[in-house]
Every structure is written in C-alpha cells, then in structure tokens.
Amino acid sequence: MTIYHSPPLPAYSEEAIRETRALQMPDLSGVPGEEDPFQDCFTRVDDAADLNDASTLFEEAQRLFSQAFTRFRADLSQCEAELQKTSDEGKSLKLLCSQKDEELKDLRADLAKARKSEAELDKQVTIILKEYGLLDPTVDANTSVSQLQQKLEIIRLLRGEVDQVKADYNWWKENMDYLAMEKEAALAKLASAETQLRSAKEKNSAQTKRIDELEVKLAEPEAEIEKTKITTDKTIVVYFRDAEAAQTELKEASNREKQSNDLDKCQSRRETLEEIHARGFGLTEEITQAKTLENDARFLISSSSDNYDEGSQGRYDNEEGPGEEAAPEGETSPGHN
C-alpha cells in the first residue's frame, strides 16, 4: 500500500492572526456627517466687507476636504488590496482543501484496495497454512490488529490535517466577510462625502454667480463716477481759467484806475497851471509839459481799454466751446451766468 504525504500547511502565528482580526478601517470621523461640512467656513461670508474673503475661505475648505478625500481614497485602496490578498489566500486554501479531499479519497480507495488485497492474501495464507497444518490463530490475530492500528493512525492523521485546513478556510472566510462589510461601509461614507462635495460646489457656484452680479452692479456706479470725474475735471479747468481771467481783469482794472488817477492828477495840475498863467505868471512851458503828460495818460488809458476789450472778446470766444463741453447738460459754465 502506498501512502501519499501531503505538503505542509502554511504556518500562521497567533500574533498574525490577531493583527488580521484586529484589522480596522481608518478612522473616517473626519468625513463630514449629514450636516453641511462648510457651514463654519461660510458663517461670516455674508458679513464680510471684502467678497474675496468668501472665495479664500471656500478654497481653504475645499483644500482640506480634498486632502481628506484623497486620504480616504488611499485607505480604501489599501482595504481593497487587503481584501484581494485575503481572497487570494482563501482561494489557495480552497484549492488546498480540495487537493486534500482528493488525496483523502485516493487514500480511502487505496485503503479499500489494500484491505481487499489483505483479505485475499490472508485468505490465501490461511488456506496454505491449513493445507500444511501450520495455522496459528494467535499470530494471525496479532498481525491483523497491528496492521489495522497503523491504518487507523494514518487515517486519524489525515483527518486531523483535513480538519485543520477546514478551520483555516472558515477563518479566512470570516475575515473576507468582515472586510467586505468594512468595504461597503467605506463606500457608503465615500458616497456621502461625494454628495456633500457636490452640494458645496453648487453653493460655491451660487456664491460666484452672486459675486458676478454684484460686480456688474458695481461697474455701473463706477462708470458714472468716472464720467462725473471727467466732467468735474473739465469744470475745474474752466474754474481755474476763469479765476486767472478774473485776476487778470482785476489787475488791468487796477492799472486803469491808477492811470485814470494819474490822468485826473495831470488834468488838475494843468488846470491849476492855466489858472496861474491866466493871472499873469509865465508858466507856458509847465502848461505844455502838463498837457503832454495828460495826453500820454489819455493814450495809456485808451490803449489799456482797447487791449481789455480785445482780451475779453478772445477769452469769451475761447471759453464758449470748452465751457459748453465741460459743463454738464442743463448747467452753465462759471463766469457766464
């Protein structure tokens, strides 16, 4: 009879078994719950003076959430790898168990054949011994019991190996079921996180749309302010020009007044000299000189008046166009009221 020795089973230490049983998913407490994960991030957005703060807060929240999401993905991938590894080992154990069962069947078949052959041999030996008168019932019984004990011991060992393989298979199957449950829980949490992320993106889209609307509304007053600023600048230029013209006119008026006073003085002096000359004093030369001074003063006054009229007319012509352009609709330029 041929006895097949099965290959040794894989050895697993108690520590490795405990570590495998204690395998847990990573702490997913950081995954937001049913509530809005960005509720705290947007608490002060409505009250913020600067709309850029809302965008900054959302970017920070999105960055933190992306980090947590990436970490969850990595943990899930590790879990799947562990599950795949466990599944492969379970398949190996199933294959080994199947091989052991086949070997056990072969051994049982061989045992049956051996028993049958042994029975036939015993029968033939018994016949031969009986023919020659050498049959000893005690020796035959002892030989049969010894062989039977050996065969029973072999069967017991094989059954022990099969039981160990079945126990290992059941243990790995439990771990596979546990890991499958953990994977389903992780996928559920991941789906929840993705839903909350989509919700946050929708809120961000609404916030961005609101910001765009506010920017459009803000652009209109800015355009009005820019237009008003241009008009104001033109008006200020006209004001400064009119102020300079007024100062020039004031200076010319002061000069004319001074020239008029000089003319009055010259006339008064001439008249005084003529009165003295009429009384018989020889003041012809002084009178002639006084008349010359009076004529000079009259000439200066006349020239100043002509220059003033020409300057006023020129300024009026120059200011008429810019004044109308600078002044807003319905208003008049300063100096032309």
TrEMBL record:
Biased composition (Acidic residues): 319-328
Keyword set, alphabetical order: Coiled coil
The keyword Coiled coil appears for this protein: yes
Coiled-coil stretches: 97-124, 183-217, 243-276
Region ranges (Disordered): 301-337
Protein known as: Uncharacterized protein LOC104242428
Gene behind the chain: LOC104242428
